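Contributing new complexes? Match this layout with F0G.
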Amino acid sequence: MSAYLQCISCPSKFRVDEILYHCTRCGDLLDVKYDGPAPDPRNLKLTFQNRKLSPTPEDQSGVWRFRDLFPFLGSMTYVVSLREGNTPLWNSPRVAKRAGLQQLTVKHLGMNPTGSFKDYGMTTAISQAKALGMQTVLCASTGNTAASMAAYAARAGMKGVVLIPQGQIALGKLAQAIDYGARVAQIDGSFDEAMLLVDELAREGQAYLLNSLNPFRLEGQKAIVMELLEQRGWRPPDRIILPGGNLGNCSAFGKALKELHEMKFINPLPRLTVVQAEGANPFARLVHQKASALQPLQASTLATAIQIGNPVSWKKARRALEWTQGDVIDVSEKEIADARALLAQDGIGCEPASAASAAGLLKLSNERRLKASDDIVLILTGHQLKDPEYIVKYHAGDLSHEGKHIASQFRNVIHSVPAEAGAIRKLIS
Ligand code: F0G
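Output block (do not edit by hand):
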């Protein structure tokens, strides 16, 4: 198979060794595409399974194990891996019950080396950076991309430069980016402004851009879908629900599902449901208003990972919904906060943005849009410990957004007691 870059709106094609993030003719986004004979699904499914027994780093990776479905890298010697992927599927009985479902499956992408789904796409994009001979990599981030890129850049021996909106990223993520040695620039602006800046710098050739504008990021994120389907014996669920911010992940899911369907790995296609926070819902507005272009907005949500008002991948995301007959909904700050705490009651911890998917599920249920027998996979995108401040505030009843208090439905208060056995005995009983 040979790989090339293809514009999503015009017939322009480019070589994969050209450093491009946009079509040079019309400026639109690029896809990685492949020529050659279609693989035999039965053989490949077996190959993927057998690689689990192999000790080589690329076979141990939950991304590179599926490399035949994104064969853009000339040689495995370029692979930079932290043994990403291999994330678990769990059930969540309490959330299932509240949503009126017989059962509910959760895939927790926070169980990755840097604690978020970004690692799936970072390994492929940084490996491409290595193949291209790049020495400096760059991203704008609400936190998780920064943490992931910093780790993979360190691993690859590259310089990592990250732009983050000052005061608007969770502490855990900031700590990671610094610790992995990236050059961290806090800007007095939003993520959307940071994104415009890195796009400009990357076009000038200052550094290689590792945001999801980079189509090689999305090729790695396709492996989330492959892994999820393999874990289910390649039985597609009825619906996959995931949070949407910059909309790269939803775009990758759509591409993966379409390709797997065309290559006869799965039938039928599951429906994709994207969930946004009400204060950061430009994609929900676009789809609900059937508008022709996305209207950027000033985003505001406590789920800082998805505080994005001008998502770069909206066209790919809209295409993903068309392919999968998907939909998009938005949820309130309170719905996100309570859904996050409800998941924790099943022993499943995640960061606020992740819980948008659970909040979306509960909203669909309240709107009577689900059947008890629906087979649904909820995607959790980031680890619980990314944003402990939010969690402590929630349980203390101190969470507020834009001056409005958020009442915590599932509070668990901390007890301040004297250092005496009697007081503890009372607490136990
Ligand atoms: N969940 C988490 C935990 C995220 O960090 C992000 C995005 C999303 C969901 C949304 O995914 O952008 O593909 O639609 N975080 C990016 C970052 C923007 O910079 O870390 P998306």
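Reviewers usually confirm one structural detail per submission. For this one: The two ends are 66 Å apart (CA to CA).
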